[in-house]
Amino acid sequence: MDSSQLPLDLGHRPALGREDFLIAPCNEVAVAWVDQWPDWPGHALAFYGPSGCGKTHLAHVWRTESTAVFVSAKDLLESDPTELLGKKGGCILDDIQDQLTKDTELQRKLFHLYNYAREETGYLLFTGREAPARWDVSLPDLSSRLSAIPSFEMGAPDEFLFEALLVKLFYDRQLTISKEVLRFLVLRLDRSFQAARDIVSVLDQQSLASQREITIPFIKSVLEA
């Protein structure tokens, strides 16, 4: 392969607006709670489910409506809770489960943020593979706080959502596929968000590298490889 055939990883920008979120039975309860904000049962809420199930996308939707800010584990360690919550009134703690269980200082920081949010009528939105009540934290006070958070599962997609998800993922990369290609993929892939993301990424890269359109014969060659 010469240099002109090398795929250029220019990146793509996922569509994360409310109008781009795909609603189905596996996520409609979580969506309903975003719609009910700020009338939540408390000041904290959690969405959990497998990788790629739409937790982060839905968090972006809530961010737009609430002006909340995303807070990473690094932010939590290096900042004061008053700085994080600030005038925004809301924080999104997206997928910090693994880091939290390994770091007691991070647990203490989250405990203080949680208490500050409650005192100031702020809001916290957690996402993770599991409900916060199941996170293995060593700080007893934080464990009791996490156990009290209302948590809603976002499950694997059904056939119709999976098909719509594939269309969205291809569209995010500015790729157009035929109905025949779409059906071919739906019938052969594991029905998971991660499988959809992986195959679209691979097909995009291989299509660029070989300068071929995404057709059924092309997909067969990729899958066989």
From TrEMBL:
<dbReference type="InterPro" id="IPR055199">
    <property type="entry name" value="Hda_lid"/>
</dbReference>
<dbReference type="Pfam" id="PF22688">
    <property type="entry name" value="Hda_lid"/>
</dbReference>
<protein>
    <submittedName>
        <fullName>DNA replication protein</fullName>
    </submittedName>
</protein>
<dbReference type="InterPro" id="IPR027417">
    <property type="entry name" value="P-loop_NTPase"/>
</dbReference>
<dbReference type="GO" id="GO:0003688">
    <property type="term" value="F:DNA replication origin binding"/>
</dbReference>
<dbReference type="GO" id="GO:0006270">
    <property type="term" value="P:DNA replication initiation"/>
</dbReference>
<dbReference type="GO" id="GO:0005886">
    <property type="term" value="C:plasma membrane"/>
</dbReference>
<feature type="domain" description="Hda lid">
    <location>
        <begin position="172"/>
        <end position="223"/>
    </location>
</feature>
